[in-house]
Amino acid sequence: FLEDREDQHPPAVRRMELTAELIAGTGATTHWISAPGETRTQRMLSLVLLADFVSVYTAALSGVDPSEIAIISRLNQLVG
């Protein structure tokens, strides 16, 4: 879970805790990553960067080209 405890609403925190409990019930593990940074923007960007890195690294480990995602390619065509 990527979290920013300073700016998260209590119901969102509770939802993540319940989700972690449900996942634990399946025998899987969860990991909690707290956002570093002094400002909300710094914390948000640090989590976005981490999520992007994890996505690319996971794709590399799986032998998948992360740049070849059809829906993202289509979105880039529409935007650009």
Task: Describe what this molecule looks like in 3D.
This protein has 80 residues and is mainly α. The chain has 3 helices and 2 strands; from the N terminus they run βαβαα. The chain has helices spanning 10-25, 40-61, 70-79; strands at 2-3, 33-34. The protein has a two-stranded parallel ribbon with strand order 1-2. Strand 1, helix 1 (10-25) and strand 2 (33-34) form a beta-alpha-beta unit. The two termini are 32 Å apart.
Helix content: 55-70%
Low-confidence stretches: none
Structural class, please? mainly alpha
Estimate the strand proportion.
5-15%
List the topology elements.
Elements: E1 2-3, H1 10-25, E2 33-34, H2 40-61, H3 70-79
Parallel strand pairs: 1-2
Give a short synopsis of this structure.
This protein has helices at residues 10-25, 40-61, 70-79, and strands at 2-3, 33-34. With 80 residues, the chain is mostly helical. Strands 1-2 form a two-stranded parallel sheet.
